[in-house]
Specification:
348 residues; alpha/beta; Rossmann fold; 9-stranded mixed sheet; 10 helices; globular
């Protein structure tokens, strides 16, 4: 990715699953400087130790709630990758004010600092839960997307290009179902499953971040990039993991049972990445769907023309109910090809 060479980049939430992988991939592309910000002191210390030989990587304690700090750290920055957020649904539901402070007001602080410093591009990492949200976390992510799009529509001259990217479950990441199933299999089960008919989009962390970093330079302003992903039935994932990992832990597959515990409050049976309203203004590219802004730019018109355009009209919402899920053979091959069935491997 030649576009990253000699760029000065700021990553928020650099200690998180996505932020850490962004940093890992970015360093290989020879940027001039990478600044990382996170409010997790312990993780930041260990990450700093890991990158101490990379003189162009500088990691700082900081919070997106601190507008003044963002203004200072964004001086001379070319590209901002905004990955900091509260992402756990239940915790955000129990502390909605905290979710607002970080996910909404923190995003506005990023926008203000980028405008003040003449940053070239800003990308916000969003979530499938922003589509038809049923909870505080999803609603706050949707508001983050809307803020980015609105900031782009109001920009003047050569101001920053603001955009967002939206993806679903990152297999193997902290808090995802694969580490949970691995721990339950190691303990001889049972595997707790909310509903056997539940479907989800899946992708690996490496895939998710690679597509995030590519979309930065495809963006023309105000779009939401939706990454294309395969679909899996959660019960099939449980079955395959039992079949492949039980003997590694000294058990037979039939020894490990699946316990149906019922869907959690606010949990959807299928995952949504494009809703009914958005498909009217969505283009399809090779690797993405691109949701164009609902409101035109106030100060300048944008010609939304992309390389690799497949079609500029989508006929149905992009959700895991409308996509054929992988069968068990395909799923098994996918998991092995991405090293997700190795014992102890929680993140690719």
């Amino acid at each position: 990715m030649e576009q990253w060479k000699d760029k000065r980049v700021l990553i928020t939430g650099v200690c998180g699953t996505v932020g850490r992988e962004i940093l890992r991939q970015l360093v290989a592309y020879c940027p001039a400087e990478v600044i990382g910000i996170d409010n997790n002191e312990s993780d930041l210390f260990f990450l700093s130790e890991e990158y101490q030989k990379h003189s162009h990587v500088k990691l700082f304690l900081g919070d997106v709630r601190d507008r003044d700090k963002l203004l200072r750290k964004m001086e001379g920055i070319d590209i901002v990758l905004h990955a900091a957020a509260f992402k756990h649904v239940v915790l955000c539901e129990e502390s909605p004010g905290e979710a607002v402070q970080t996910n909404i007001l923190g995003t506005q602080n990023i926008i203000d600092a980028a405008l003040a410093n003449g940053v070239q591009r800003v990308l916000f990492t969003s979530s499938d839960k922003a589509v038809n949200p049923t909870n505080v976390m999803g609603t706050s992510k949707l508001m983050g997307e809307r803020l980015m799009t609105a900031a782009n529509s109001l920009r003047r001259g050569k101001g920053p290009i603001f955009s967002s990217t939206r993806f679903g479950n990152v297999l193997g990441s902290r808090g995802s179902v694969i580490p949970l199933f691995k721990r339950q299999i190691a303990s001889k089960g049972p595997l707790t499953l909310t509903d056997p008919d539940m479907t989800r989009f899946i992708m690996t962390l490496k895939e998710a971040v690679r597509l995030v970093m590519e979309s930065v330079f495809i963006a023309l302003g105000g779009e939401v990039f939706v990454t294309k992903m395969p679909v899996v039935r959660i019960v099939d994932l449980a079955d395959v993991m039992i079949e492949e990992l039980s003997e590694q832990n000294g058990y037979k597959p039939q020894d490990i049972k699946i316990q149906i515990i019922g869907a959690k409050s606010g949990e959807k049976m299928y995952e949504e990445l494009l809703n009914e309203e958005e498909i009217r203004r969505t283009f399809e590219l090779d690797l993405y769907f691109v949701v164009l802004p609902a409101f035109k730019s106030v100060y300048k018109s944008v010609n939304y023309t992309y390389n690799g355009l497949i079609r500029n009209c989508i006929s149905e919402p992009y959700n895991s109910k409308n996509v054929m899920p992988m069968n068990k053979k395909e799923l098994r091959t996918y998991l092995y090809s991405h090293n997700l069935l190795k014992e102890g491997n929680l993140c690719e």
